[in-house]
Each structure stands twice: as C-alpha cells, then as structure tokens.
C-alpha cells in the first residue's frame, strides 16, 4: 500500500489529490493566477483531513504538461521542493492522459481525443484507448494547428470523443476528423485526481525519478513568445 500526493496547475484550474491505500481525496478550483497561493494549502488540507503527516508520503506527482508554461513550472517547483525535502521520488504525469482517464472513469468512454488550447493558433493533442481504468497512448502527444488534427491511422471507424479546451476550435478542424468524433466535452480541464491515480499505478510498477531529473513537458520549443509588431 502507498501514499502519494499529486499537484497540478497546468490550466486555469488548480488542484491537489491524495492517494492513500487506494482511496483518493481531492481539491479542485478554477482560479486563474492564484495557483501559487492555493496549491500547497490544498495539499496540506488533504493531509490534515486524512490524519497524515507529510512524512507519510511515499512519492510526489505533478502535472508535467503540456499546458500553461507558468502553471507547469509552479506545480513542478512545488512538487520538487517537497520531494527534495522528504527525499522521495517524483513522477510527472501527462495532462492529456489525465483528461482521458477522467473522461473514461466518469463516462465510461473508450476512445478519447484530449486536446488543450495551446494558444498561438495551436492545440496540444493526443489519442488514448481506455479500458478497465487504464489509458494507453496511441502514437505521440503533439502540438499542432487544429486544422491538422487527424484520427489515429487505422482507427477512423471508432466512436471518438473529444475532451478539453482545444475542441472549442471545432469549426476549423478538418471534416474527416469531425466525422469520426461523436461528442466534444469542451469544458473539461486536467485535474490532480486523475493524475494521482496514474501516478499510483506508475509508482506500483517501479517508476519514479529523483526530483532533479524531472522536468515539465512543454511540447513547444518556443516557451517565451512575443506578439510581432
């Protein structure tokens, strides 16, 4: 049995989740620009409610991205700081995988296309097959214009569901993609509850890195961008 804490600030939402012997408790709030102030207090609340000291944690996890550059750094920094102090391993969890797992658990979806608005006319996107509480990435995560989104090769006939803010750009997505997507859940955001479940599974399989080796995944090389004049 294990105890893990996950932190996420990859979107406008801020969340924390605690896994303790298979039970999950979580906090989730949409609070743009308040991630730094809210993240660690939420984590402390979860531990206090469970009657656990910080030292009871076996590992830490965080939303590694893709997502908001600033938010990813906030969650990574908070999780790394705790992991360093406790001398515990750290696991980075994909925000897109978390979206897929949350949709699968809540709506029993099997074929999920998470997509997040990446700004600059692009989306972060991936495809997942979901079954029995697990998600499997098909292909790779990518950042690309919504006009170039496609269904996984050879799986165009499946009933896909789009999840996440990237699907607000539906009108510019290609017709073949639209034909294979039966539903879009635009308001879904990544959350630590799904992340801590993914992290617990990975930790049980022996995964986990030293805190200094874990980095956010931006997908886009151009982290800083200024509007051209």
TrEMBL record:
Q: Name one Pfam family in it.
A: TsaD
Domain Gcp-like intervals: 30-171
Q: Which GO terms describe its biological process?
A: tRNA threonylcarbamoyladenosine modification
- Compartments where located: Cytoplasm
InterPro entries, from UniProt?
ATPase_NBD (IPR043129), Gcp-like_dom (IPR000905), T6A_TsaB (IPR022496)
Q: Which UniProt keywords apply?
A: Cytoplasm, Transferase, tRNA processing
| Main subcellular localisation | cytoplasm
- Report the SUPFAM superfamilies cross-referenced here: Actin-like ATPase domain (SSF53067)
Q: Name one GO cellular component term.
A: cytosol
Gene3D superfamilies according to UniProt:
3.30.420.40
Q: Give the molecular function GO annotations.
A: transferase activity
Give the protein family: Belongs to the KAE1 / TsaD family. TsaB subfamily.
- Name the UniProt record assigns to this protein: tRNA threonylcarbamoyladenosine biosynthesis protein TsaB
Q: Which organism is it from?
A: Bisbaumannia pacifica
User: What is the phylogenetic placement of the source species in the record?
Assistant: Bacteria, Pseudomonadati, Pseudomonadota, Gammaproteobacteria, Oceanospirillales
């Amino acid at each position: 049995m294990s105890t893990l804490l996950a932190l996420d600030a990859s979107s406008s939402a801020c969340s924390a989740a605690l896994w303790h012997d298979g039970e999950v408790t979580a906090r989730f709030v949409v609070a743009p620009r308040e991630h730094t102030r809210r993240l660690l207090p939420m984590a402390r609340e979860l531990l206090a409610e469970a009657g656990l000291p910080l030292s009871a944690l076996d590992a830490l996890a965080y939303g590694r991205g893709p997502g908001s550059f600033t938010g990813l750094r906030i969650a990574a920094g908070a999780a790394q700081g705790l992991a360093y102090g406790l001398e515990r391993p750290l696991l980075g969890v994909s925000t897109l995988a978390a979206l897929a797992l949350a949709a699968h658990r809540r709506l029993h979806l099997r074929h999920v296309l998470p997509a997040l608005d990446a700004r600059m006319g692009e989306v972060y996107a991936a495809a997942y097959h979901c079954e029995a509480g697990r998600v499997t990435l098909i292909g790779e995560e990518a950042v690309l214009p919504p006009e170039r989104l496609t269904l996984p090769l050879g799986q165009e006939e499946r009933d896909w569901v789009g999840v996440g803010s990237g699907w607000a750009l539906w009108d510019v997505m290609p017709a073949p993609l639209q034909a294979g997507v039966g539903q879009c859940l635009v308001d879904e955001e990544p959350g630590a509850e799904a992340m801590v479940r993914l992290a617990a599974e990975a930790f049980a399989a022996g995964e986990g890195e030293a805190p200094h080796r874990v980095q956010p995944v931006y997908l886009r090389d151009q982290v800083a961008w200024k509007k051209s004049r």
